[in-house]
């Protein structure tokens, strides 16, 4: 898979997901690999006739016009492209009564196997999302006696799946309780909480075991070790544990800490790899090392000095295309970095979205 193609498809998907129709006027058409494109045009012509029965005059016009625009676009093709393709069209105007009909056509880098025609208030993007979302998943569990956070790490993003709280009250206890009885209650609370966390992890991950590449668990020494060694996780999930780390927090900041401390076992994950490269860039910056950023980055590419080119995905397509293609001719590695984590945010906001680690200083 070409990095630039993946980035562009991800950007189109993001754009499509943010479009909303006032009525069911956004049309999505998926044509699978090998399917007869003339059959699709015939179906869409029939749908135009059906759409003429829509009661709302504005909605009727928007749907009929979108279908016509798609049919005209399909006529540009003699046959369905090798991997199939998807076409999206609809009125995306934010002003009532004003038509702004736009069309997107996508030829994916992997085959499409679904055939879809749908009119809705949103575009159907799931089949394309499945192409750009990495299938490999890592599970993250941050746990102490009071709180736990369960998350997934996939590609360049982590996602919080579940937050749990135990209601544990520490050393406070009602007057008159014996110390032994109180300790027993605390142990029962702790055990029950770990069982709840284990059950939540089972519900979150067991059904997708084939794509689960590993589980990383963190927390204070005693709690996390008890959780790992006890019978709280499903036995199939316990086999997937690849790292156990001491961390300070168990909220979302604890998940970020857990990712950072497990960088060795997570080195193949896009976010972790890109964080590592950006951290290397920052160290070189502090010591006036072999790095460059901003407008001077292209000069380094032209001189063949760039070892790794870092581009923010917030840059416009033309800039990314130009610098990416130039880097490839110079045998320079390229990373297109989102701003969804701290280092990616810094690349965009502090360094103008362009930076490079250099082979030699210029």
Description:
The structure is a single chain. The protein is α+β, with helices and mostly antiparallel strands and 362 residues long. It folds into three domains: 3-132, Translation, Eukaryotic Peptide Chain Release Factor Subunit 1, Chain A (2-Layer Sandwich), CATH 3.30.960.10; 137-268, eRF1 domain 2 (Nucleotidyltransferase, domain 5); 271-358, 60s Ribosomal Protein L30, Chain: A (2-Layer Sandwich), CATH 3.30.1330. Helix content is 41%, strand content 23%. The protein is built from twelve helices and 13 strands. It has helices at residues 3-17, 37-51, 57-74, 126-132, 179-205, 221-229, 235-238, 252-261, 270-286, 297-302, 317-329, 342-349; strands at residues 26-31, 85-91, 101-106, 116-120, 137-143, 147-154, 157-165, 212-219, 241-246, 291-293, 306-312, 333-337, 354-358. A five-stranded mixed β-sheet has the order 7-6-5-8-9, sandwiched between helices. Strands 3-2-1-4 form a four-stranded antiparallel β-sheet, with helices on both faces. Strands 10-13-11-12 form a four-stranded mixed β-sheet, with helices on both faces. Strand 6 (147-154) and strand 7 form a beta hairpin. The radius of gyration is 26 Å and the shape is globular. The model has no long low-confidence stretch (mean pLDDT 92).
């Amino acid at each position: 898979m070409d990095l630039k193609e993946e980035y562009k498809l991800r950007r189109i998907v993001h754009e499509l997901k943010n479009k909303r129709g006032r009525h069911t006027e956004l049309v999505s058409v998926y044509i699978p690999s090998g399917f007869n494109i003339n059959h699709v045009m015939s179906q869409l012509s029939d749908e135009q006739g059906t759409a003429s029965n829509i009661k709302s005059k504005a909605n009727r016009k928007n749907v009929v016009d979108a279908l016509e625009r798609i049919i005209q676009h399909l006529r540009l093709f003699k046959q369905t492209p090798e991997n199939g393709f998807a076409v999206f069209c609809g009125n995306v105007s934010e002003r009532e009564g004003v038509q702004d009909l736009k069309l997107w056509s996508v030829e994916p880098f992997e085959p499409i196997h679904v055939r879809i025609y749908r009119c809705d208030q949103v575009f159907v993007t799931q089949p394309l999302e499945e192409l750009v979302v990495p299938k490999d998943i890592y599970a993250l569990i941050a746990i102490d006696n009071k709180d736990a956070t369960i998350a997934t790490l996939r590609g360049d993003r982590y996602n919080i799946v579940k937050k749990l709280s135990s209601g544990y009250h520490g050393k406070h206890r009602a007057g008159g309780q014996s110390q032994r009885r109180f300790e027993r209650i605390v142990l029962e609370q702790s055990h029950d909480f770990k069982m709840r966390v284990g059950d939540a992890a089972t519900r979150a991950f067991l059904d997708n075991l084939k794509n689960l590449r590993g589980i990383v668990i963190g927390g204070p020494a005693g709690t996390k070790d008890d959780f790992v060694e006890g019978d709280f996780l499903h036995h199939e999930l316990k086999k997937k544990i690849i790292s156990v780390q001491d961390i300070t927090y168990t909220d979302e900041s604890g998940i970020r800490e857990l990712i950072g401390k497990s960088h060795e076992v997570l080195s193949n994950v896009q976010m972790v790899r890109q964080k590592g490269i950006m951290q290397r860039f920052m160290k070189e910056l502090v010591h006036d090392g072999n790095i460059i950023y901003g407008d001077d980055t292209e000069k380094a590419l032209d001189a063949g000095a760039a070892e790794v080119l870092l581009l923010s995905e917030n840059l416009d397509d033309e800039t990314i295309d130009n610098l990416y293609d130039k880097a490839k001719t110079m045998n320079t590695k390229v990373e297109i970095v989102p701003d969804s984590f701290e280092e990616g945010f810094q690349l965009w906001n502090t360094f103008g979205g362009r930076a490079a680690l250099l082979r030699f200083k210029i």
